[in-house]
Amino acid sequence: MKLKHTFAAIAAAGVAAAGTSANAVEIEVGYPYSALFDVTFERMMPEFNKAHPDIEVKFRATYENYEDATNTILREAVAGDLPDVTLQGLNRQALMVAKGIAKSMEPFIANEADFTKDGYHKAMLDLGTFDGEVYGLPFAVSLPVGYYNMDALGEAGITELPTTWDEVIDNCKKLHEAGFKNPIFWGWNITGNWFFQALMWSQGEPILKDGMVNFDGEAGLAALETMRKIFRECNMLNLSVGDAGKPFAAGEVAMHFWSTSAVGAIERSKGDFEVRTGEFPGMGQPPMGLPAGGNSVMFVSTSEDPEEIEAAWKFIKFATSGVGAAMVAETTGYMPPNKAANDTLVDFYAQNPNKHTAVRQAGLLRDWIAYPGDNGLAITQVIYDGLESIVTGDYDDMEALQEELTEEVNDLLPN
Questions:
Q1: What interhelical angle do 34-51 and 322-331 show, nearest 10?
Q2: Taking the mean position of all CA atoms in its chain, how far away is CA 213?
Q3: What distance lies between CA 3 and its chain's CA centroid?
Q4: Read out DSSP for 218-282?
Q5: 297 has which bridge partners?
Q6: How far is CA 47 from CA 34, 50, 144, 314, 319, in A?
Q7: What is the three-class DSSP state of 365?
Q8: Closest CA to 415 of 142, 212, 174, 162
Q9: How many CA atoms lie within 13 A of 360 on its CB side?
C-alpha cells in the first residue's frame, strides 16, 4: 500500500480535491519538511486545482529531511513504488541521476514554447543540470542567515548586528552578563553538513576539490576552530534539529543561526519580541561565498501512462513557475529560484524585510557540494558525528579531529 500524507489544513477544508473532475488523472508527490512546506502547498494547491481541474495530486508521507528524502526514494526505487514527483535536496540530485531514478526533463522542455522566458534562467537551470541535460528544477533556494531577538540584544546593550564570528562571541559574553544562560544556537546539525560547508565557502574554499577532501588544510582547520570557539565561549547547548528553534521562538535564545527557509515558521511561532534577520557573519571579513541550500523538483515516475506523465510535468512546471516560486518565498523564507517571481515580490519584500536578507546575499551562491559515490550519505554521517563531538566537548583538539575526519572521509570517497 502506498502511504499518503495530506496536510491537516487541506484535509480539513477539502481543498486538495476541490475543483477536480471525477475522471481526474492522479499523480503522487513527495516533499520534505512538513513544518516548512505544508503551508506552501496549502497556498499553492487551490491555484493549481483551478488551473488543472483534470489532475488530482496525492501527497505521500512527508520526508523528515533531505537525507530521509534520498533514503526513501532509494528504497522505493528498489520496491518499484516510486512517486511521480519528488522534491530532493540540491546536493542529492546527482545521486538520483547516477542511479537512473531521476528522468531527464529535456523532452518536456523541448515541447515548451519560450521555456527560458518563463523565468527558468540559466543560473538556476544549472543547479539541476547534469551532462548537459536538466534533471531538476529548483523549487526553493536558501542561504544561511542570522536570526536576532532585538529585545534581548537591547537588554545586553547590543545595538548593531554582528558581521563576524568574533563579534558574535563578544555578544555572547554580553548576553551572559545580562542573564542569558544560553544566548546562541548555531546550526551545525543542519542537513548535509551545510554549515561546515558555509564556513569553508566563507573562505572561498569548497569542502571537496577534484573529488578529494579539501578541508585538510588551513581553511578546514580554521572552520573547525571557529566552531569550537563559538560552542565553548557561548556555552551552546546540543539541541536536535527539531528542537533547535524552540528556545529562540520562546525568547530564551537571543541569536539563532539557521537557514533563511525558517523565516516564515519563526515569525509565526515566536513570542512577543522583535525578530530581525541579518547576513551570515564572516570569519574576520565578509563571506566570500555561501552554499546554496534548498531543493529541486525531480521527475521520477515509472508510469507508462502518457496522461499521468503529462500531468506530472504540469505539476512540476506550475510548482517551479513564477507563480509557484512567489508562493514559496511568501510562505517560507526561501529565495525564489524563478526570476519571473521577482517582479511580483517587490512590495512583498518591502513589507517583509526579514525575508529579503537572503536575497541580498544572492551573489554569494556557491554549490552545496554532494559527496560522490555510493558512500555519500555515510560521509555526511561521519562529518556530522565529528562536528557533534565538538559540541559535546568530546573533542577539543581540532587538529586531531581534522586528521581523523580527513582519513575517514578519504576512505569512503571513490578511488
A1: 150
A2: 23
A3: 24
A4: HHHHHHHHHHHHHHHHTT-----TTTTTHHHHTTS-SEEEEEGGGHHHHHHH--SS-EEEEEPPB
A5: 87, 137
A6: 20, 5, 30, 13, 10
A7: strand
A8: 212
A9: 14
Radius of gyration of the chain (CA): 21
**DSSP H helical ranges for 14-125:** 34-51, 66-79, 93-98, 106-110, 122-125
Grid cell for residue 225 = 576552530
Nearest C-alpha neighbor of 196 from the set 234, 155, 224, 164: 224
For residues 356 and 46, what is the distance between their CA atoms, to the nearest angstrom? 26
What angle is formed at CA 328 by the lines to CA 327 and CA 329, rounded to 5 degrees? Answer: 90
Distance from C-alpha of 26 to C-alpha of 62, rounded to nearest angstrom = 18
Tell me the CA distances in angstroms from 278 to 147, 164, 258, 288, one per residue in order.
Answer: 7, 11, 11, 16
Q: Which of 130, 127, 59, 148 is nearest to 294 (CA)?
A: 127
Contacts of 19 (CB under 8 A, 6+ apart): 46, 49, 50, 53
Residue where the block lists cell 534520498: 70
Name the residue among 32, 44, 39 with its Cα closest to residue 7: 39
The model's pTM is 0.86
Q: Tell which residue, 182, 206, 216, has the closest CA to residue 386.
A: 216
The amino acid sitting at 117 is K
Q: What is the pLDDT along the chain (415 residues), one digit of tens a residue?
A: 334 444 433 433 334 444 556 689 999 999 999 989 999 999 999 999 999 999 999 999 999 999 999 999 999 999 999 999 999 999 899 999 999 999 999 999 999 988 876 777 677 778 899 999 999 999 999 999 999 999 999 999 999 999 999 999 999 999 999 999 999 999 999 989 999 999 999 999 999 999 899 999 999 999 999 999 999 999 999 999 889 999 999 999 999 999 999 998 899 999 999 999 999 999 999 999 999 899 999 999 999 999 999 999 999 999 999 999 999 999 998 988 888 887 789 999 999 999 999 989 988 989 899 899 889 999 999 999 999 999 999 999 999 999 999 999 999 999 8
Query: Side chain identity at 244, as an amino acid letter?
Result: A
* Closest of 171, 108, 176, 166 to residue 136, by C-alpha: 108
What percent of the residues of the chain are helix, what percent strand, and what percent coil, each to the nearest 5?
Answer: 50, 15, 35
Q: Cell triple for residue 8? A: 491537516
